[in-house]
Amino acid sequence: DLLVGCGHEGLDTEIEIVDAETFRRCATEEVGEIWVHGPGVAAGYWRRPEETEAKFHARLAEADELLSEKTYLRTGDLGFVRGGELFVTGRVKDLIIIRGRNLYPNDLELAVEQSHEALQAGGGAAFSLEVEGEERLVVVQELEARRRADLPAVIELIRQTLAEEFEVQPYAIVLVKAGSVPKTSSGKIQRSACRTRFETGSFDALAEWRAPLEVGTDNSEQIET
Question: In a 10 Å sphere around its CB, with 0-12 CB exposed, 13-18 middle and 19+ buried, how is residue 140 labelled?
Answer without folding.
Answer: buried
